[in-house]
Design brief:
Length: about 240
């Protein structure tokens, strides 16, 4: 069943056509990768899905609802969560409090006003931190974490609202090979919780993680299929491998 359907999506920035009639279907329960040369429209597509960019034309349907004109907060409430390429954790707060605030966003106003959520959510906070190998850094400031650990923390925050669809924009950017390996291990278990669309330049990383790949080039879909199909695609070999 399709969780996300993007049809003929176009995005113009003045005279620049960043997306040019993109079609994308993402099935529920799958990991779907977006790859392509720099400037091919990958991040723009993610932001259009999340509502950070309003499309010039085309439609976006999520969970059988047209969200093309929906504001970002409405998409978030519907179950779409986006982690941007640049980390946006709260560096002056502890790692624990970053996760606590994310979990508190699910709570109603009465619970927040009663100031009981910290004790009630403590177990969930620590479970989340342990899951992303951050329990030992709970009391440290988020800004003191390594780059890779900040990325893991932000993925944890994105998952805190229990999204149906998680959008990740280059989550391994700037990581060491070991951090990239661990990131893959941390992401695989979320398949049972939500669908994933991920933009990534590390081809080996994305091949080992995703069920399906869509290749973009100059704002258009160049090819789409399984990892094996894309590896043997003549179109991809001619365009993508020589320009990525």
């Amino acid at each position: 069943m399709a969780l996300l359907e993007v049809t003929a999506l176009t995005k113009m920035f003045s005279q620049l056509r960043a997306l040019d009639g993109v079609d994308l279907t993402v099935r529920a329960g799958t990991f779907h990768g977006l790859i392509g040369p720099n400037g091919s429209g990958k991040s723009t597509l993610l932001k259009a899905i999340a509502g950070a960019h309003a499309p010039t034309s085309g439609t976006i349907r999520f969970d059988d609802t047209d969200i093309t004109a929906a504001p970002p907060f409405a998409r978030a409430r519907a179950g779409v969560s986006l982690k941007f390429q640049i980390t946006s954790v709260l560096p002056e707060l502890s790692v624990y409090d970053n996760v606590l605030l994310a979990l508190q966003s699910r709570e109603g106003l009465p619970s927040l006003l009663s100031s009981r959520t910290r004790s009630v959510l403590n177990g969930d906070v620590m479970t989340t931190l342990d899951r992303f190998q951050l329990s030992g850094r709970a009391d440290d400031l988020a800004g003191e974490l390594s780059h890779g650990q900040q990325q893991w923390l932000e993925i944890a925050l994105a998952l805190a609202c229990r999204p149906k669809l998680l959008l990740l924009d280059e989550p391994t950017g700037g990581m060491s090979p070991e951090e990239r390996r661990v990131t893959g291990e941390l992401l695989r278990p979320i398949r049972s919780e939500c669908t994933l669309v991920i933009v990534e330049h590390d081809i080996d990383f994305i091949k080992n993680l995703c069920d399906c790949l869509t290749v973009l080039d100059q704002g258009r879909v160049l090819d789409e299929g399984s990892v094996e199909q894309i590896e043997h695609s003549t179109k991809v070999q001619e365009v993508y491998t020589s320009r990525v």
